[in-house]
Amino acid sequence: MNKTTQYLLPVIIAAAVAAGVFIGGKLNFSATPETLFSSNTSKDKLNRLIDYIDYEYVDDVDVDSIVDVTVMNILENLDPHSVYIPSEEEKRVSENMQGDFVGVGIRFDMINDTLTVVRTLEGGPSVAAGIKAGDRILMADTDTLYGKNMRNTDIISKLKGTENTSVNLKIYRKQTNEEFNINLKRAKVPIKSVVAYYMLTDDLGYIKINRFAETSYDEFVEALAILKQKGAKNLTLDLRNNPGGILDVTRSIADEFLKDGKLILFTKNKKGEIDKYFATDEGEFEDGEIYVLINEKSASASEIIAGALQDNDKGVIVGRRSFGKGLVQRPMPLGDGSVVRLTISRYYTPTGRSIQRSYKKGNKDYFDDYYDRFKSGELKSMDSIKVADSLKFKTPKGKIVYGGGGIIPDVFVPLARSPEELSLERGLRSKMVGFIDDFVFDKLDKDRAIYSNMSFEEFMNKFNVSDDLLIEYTDYLSEKRGQRIYIEKYAAQMKRHIKAVFIEQLFGVNGYQQELNKNDEMIEKVIELHGN
Fold first, then answer.
1. Residues 67, 438: Cα–Cα separation, whole Å
2. Buried-most residue among 81, 101, 175, 194 (CB within 10 A)?
3. Are strands 316-319 and 290-294 parallel, antiparallel or unpaired?
4. Which CATH superfamily is domain 100-190 in?
5. Cα separation of 346 and 328, whole Å?
């Protein structure tokens, strides 16, 4: 080998590798000799523009942000549910869908610039380690966790970590005025999707699911088993405000109510390929009566369950017309930690109806449909719901059901308050965000011993929010907001909400929901139906 060849050989090899990478990146099953080496494609045009901006544009530009905006603009022209999730948000979204995260398992707040435990999370390592509500966590290993400039994101990054890694926490306990260290191992902490389950009557149970995550089926089965032990022969499944989630989990829950061989749903993709999903013989609640609560914010997986039961003449759907989302998304990684959730098929209920409402007028009109329902009167009267005869379907027992925009309930329950009242309440709630939690925490923190030996049942029966306590909260809120806040018009609702937060901080979210459900119109309608 001569010297020239020796020097050129690495260059030739490098060029061959580069060419291989280029060609390999362009190869696909539909590529032809004419297009394989062509640079005049739409994809190449977009790549070339980004390169021009990156290398030639007169000012420095964050190319990543341009790509993000481009991706979002592309998706906006597809459908309302194909969405881009940036890398910094993807982990949070994934944890929410997985149903757990790795950490120490506390809900905290910064009280007087100090990390303070509001509540330990059930199933997390802090409970087993002996950390209590009211504890101040001063340090995690060598990192200080107090001070005016501490952000929640900084604190979370120090407490979260890899599963089974240890963290040494320095604790100050106000009740006993002592300071000590606790060493614990980070572990998976459940993010519960079954947020409440309890008995409504002697034989009627209640389960509320707020989303369908990977753990939702197991949580549901556990809650159902507990209710059956308490005598539940019938069930109320609350799917109000549930935006949906994982399809496989949804099918498993629907299977609990339907007999072997019953069709749950089917999906159809762009090629016309159909996948059908049937119930098995493993259902644990196939004979009991089932009531499903839905409203205008029940979407996707919630509608799959409601539609599967309704089309199989099983149970009673109670509430108002659901959201109307009949598209199925699949998360697809983009290589940099970001993800696109792309619509890959439509789903159909057992009778063959699509409940996806139109999005031809664009995303804004699509998501503003809620306000159109207000104006049309359909949230007050079932007769105001617009249906098309062309989208009429019939169940095996002859019941008429409709496609084209949500599940219409069997029993309608109107919205109790007017749009104006709801708007005022939403405005009031926005002014109170976080303040009820802080107010209740301050009250409990002054003397936790009063409540330490009180059971949940005792607290529910004996503790009431007095007029004086409501006035005290109003003064507290007005001071924090820097202006007088008038909540007297909503005194009853505010008292219930304050009591619910007391319950949540002392006993957990199950009791919180139970308190908020008192005098709930839909639940009262179910109890009435069940009694007849």
1. 41
2. 194
3. parallel
4. PDZ domain (2.30.42.10)
5. 6
